[in-house]
Amino acid sequence: MKPRHKRFALIGLGLITLALATMLVLNAFRSNLVFFFTPTQVANGEVPQGRSFRIGGMVEDGSLTREGDGLTVHFIVTDLAKRVPVTFKGILPDLFKEGKGAVAQGQLVADGTFIASEVLAKHDENYMPPEAADALAKAKASGAQSSSTLVVQPQ
Amino acid sequence: MSFMGVNWLKYSSPQAFYPLAGSLIPWCAAAAILLIGVGLYIGFFIAPTDFQQGEAYRIIFVHVPAAWMSMFLYVVMAAWAGLGLGLNARLSFMMAQAIAPTGAMFTFLALLTGAMWGKPTWGAWWVWDARLTSELILLFQYAGVMLLRTSIDDLRRADRASAVLALVGVVNVPIIYFSVRWWNTLHQGASVSMTAAPKMAATMLTAMLLMTVGFWMYSLAVTLARMRCVMVERESLLSWGKQASMQEVAEAR
C-alpha cells in the first residue's frame, strides 16, 4: 500500500468514525432537538412539566374565536388524533389560518389549556399561484362527489 | 491521466493552472450575470404570486439557491481539503482556501434572506429550530476554517490543520439537509428534491434553477479569481510567481 493510499484510508476511517459518533450523539439528544411537541405527545404526558415548551399542529377548522378585546384568541391545535385548546393574547402572524399549521410557545395549565406567549405560523412546502390552488380545491370537491356516485360523468 | 485528449494532471501544477483559471473567469462571470439576470427577472416579474404568502415568497429565488450553494460549497471545500491531505497537493489546499469565503458569503445570504422571509410568514425573524441552528453553525464552521488558517504562520501546517477542521465539519451538511425530516422544525420541508416531484409551479421552479446555476457560475468565477491571488501570493518567492505578479501589475497599468 502506497503512503498515499494509507492516508486516504485513514481519512475515510476518520470520517466514518466521526459520522457514527455524530449519529449516536444526535440520537441521544433526539428529544431536545424537536422544535415543538405534537398534541398526541401532550396527551401522553411526554412534554416537560412546569416549564415553557412549544406545541405544533394544525389549527382546527372553525375553532378560532376572538374575545371582546380583539386581542385574546382561542383556538384548537390538533394533529388529527388529539386536540389541545390554546389561548393567546397578542397579534397573530399574517399566515395564521384555520386549517393551516401553527406553532405556539407557552405553558400547559391545570385544566389542560395551553397558554401561549408566542404564536408562529408554520408554512408548508407547497408553492403555487392562487388560480392553481382554486382549481385544486375544486377538483378535490368534485372528486369527493364523483367517488360517492361511482359514475364518471362526461362533461 | 488523460481524458478527451487532454492531460488533466498537467493542471495540478500552479504554472499551468494559473493561465487556465485566467481564461475561464470571464466566461463564468458572463454566464453568472446572464443567468442571475434572467433568473431574477423571471422570479420577480413572470412567476405567479403565491396563493398563501402573496409576494413575500419571492425571496426564495435568492434564499433557496444561496442555501443550496452554502452546503454544496462546503462539501466541495472539504473534498479539496481531503484530496490535499491524501495527495499532499498544494493546489488542492489552495482550492479549499479559495472556496471558503464564497461559501461563508452564501451561508450568510441564506440566513439573512431567511430572516427577512421569516418575519412576514412565520411572525419571527429567528427561531432556534434544527434547520436554522445547523445553518448558523455552518457559518461558524466557515469562519473557523478561515480563522484557523490565518492563525498559523507556517503555510503547510495551516493547510493541514484547516483541512482537518473542514473535513470534520462535513458531518453538519447532512444534518442541515435532513433536519426538516428528522425532527419537528418550524422550517418547512423540501419543495424540490431529487426523489419527488417539485411542489411548486413550473415558472417558479425555472427561476429558482436558473438562479442556482447562476450562483454556481458566480462561485466558479470568484473562486478562480481568488485562486489566482492565492497562487501569486504563495509562490511569489518562486520565479514563475514573480513573473505572473509582474505581468499582472503591468496589465493593471
Describe the structure.
- The complex is a heterodimer of chains A (155) and B (253).
- Chain A has 155 residues and is of the alpha+beta class.
- Chain A has helices at 3-28, 30-33, 39-43, 130-149; strands at 53-59, 65-66, 72-78, 83-89, 101-108, 114-122.
- Chain A has two domains: 1-33; 35-122, OB fold (Dihydrolipoamide Acetyltransferase, E2P) (Beta Barrel).
- Chain A is 35% helix and 26% strand.
- Chain A has a five-stranded mixed beta barrel.
- Chain B has one domain (25-217).
- Helices cover 75% and strands 2% of the residues of chain B.
- In chain B, a hairpin with a 2-residue loop joins strand 1 and strand 2 (6-7).
- In chain B, helix 1 (14-46) runs antiparallel to helix 7 (202-235), helix 3 packs antiparallel against helix 4 and helix 7 crosses helix 8 (239-252).
- The interface between A and B is large, with 42 and 40 residues.
Quick rundown:
Chain A is α+β, with helices and mostly antiparallel strands and 155 residues long. Chain A is 35% helix and 26% strand.
Draw up the topology in text.
The complex is a heterodimer of chains A (155) and B (253).
Chain A: H1 3-28, H2 30-33, H3 39-43, E1 53-59, E2 65-66, E3 72-78, E4 83-89, E5 101-108, E6 114-122, H4 130-149
Parallel strand pairs in A: 4-6
Antiparallel strand pairs in A: 1-3, 1-5, 2-3, 3-4, 5-6
Chain B: E1 2-3, E2 6-7, H1 14-46, H2 60-87, H3 90-121, H4 130-151, H5 155-169, H6 172-182, H7 202-235, H8 239-252
Antiparallel strand pairs in B: 1-2
Helix pairs in contact in B: 1-7, 2-3, 2-5, 2-7, 3-4, 3-7, 4-5, 4-6, 7-8
